[in-house]
Amino acid sequence: MTLFCLTSLISSCGFQLRGDYLLNDELQTLYVSSSDVHGELTRLVKLHLTHNKVKVLKHKNVEVPELRIMSDKLDRRTLSVFQNGQVAEYELIYAVHYQLRFANEEPQDFRFELNRDYQDDPNYALAKSRELSLLLSEMRKSAADKMLRDMARVQR
Q1: Which residues contact 154 (CB under 8 A, 6 or more apart)?
Q2: CA 82/CA 69 separation, integer angstroms
């Protein structure tokens, strides 16, 4: 009975599991390239594709679509400062630019930004450094998810 109530509650609020993206048949085999071949975002995108049963080629093939990660960069903007002039809060801006290229077609360009607030405290530098590292990792995972969601919406 409890299981039934829990299932009803979860499904009534619109909850759905993430992770399975319905990519077009032509995107079931991809070549992924990047300016930062060993970068975290590139690794996460390949991992997400593999989990979704997409064959990721190791070598470029003209007949196969290419996902090209053009750039990913992190900027920050000061939101507030302490009375002594030290920065208290930042807005982290993670910008991603990538292209989806199909044979004999113009590349489709995609850009997006993810924003997060980060409160800094020089009294807890080590803990805040770890928190920032975790936040950046979470932003990269969100970016990889967004890229796959965008690719699932591609119509040709």
Answers
A1: 24, 27, 100, 108
A2: 38
Q: Supply the pLDDT for residue 111.
A: 97
Six token digits for residue 60: 């470029």
Which amino acid is it at 71? S
**Measured CA angle at 69 (ends 53, 51), to 5 deg:** 15
- Pair of tokens at residue 109: 């360009």
- List the chain residues with pLDDT less than 50: 16-18
CA distance 49 to 30: 9
**Residue 19, phi-psi category: left (phi > 0), alpha (psi -120 to 50), beta (remainder):** left
pLDDT digits (tens, 9 = 90+) for 82-106: 888 888 899 999 999 999 999 999 9
What strands lie across the sheet with 87-101, from one edge to the other?
Answer: 55-57, 29-34, 66-81, 87-101, 108-119
Helix (H, G, I), strand (E, B) or coil at 63: coil
What was the pLDDT predicted at 16? 47
Q: Write down the pLDDT at residue 17.
A: 47
* Contact (Cβ atoms closer than 8 angstroms) between residue 68 and residue 104: no
Q: Helices 40-51 and 125-152, interaxial angle, to 10°?
A: 50
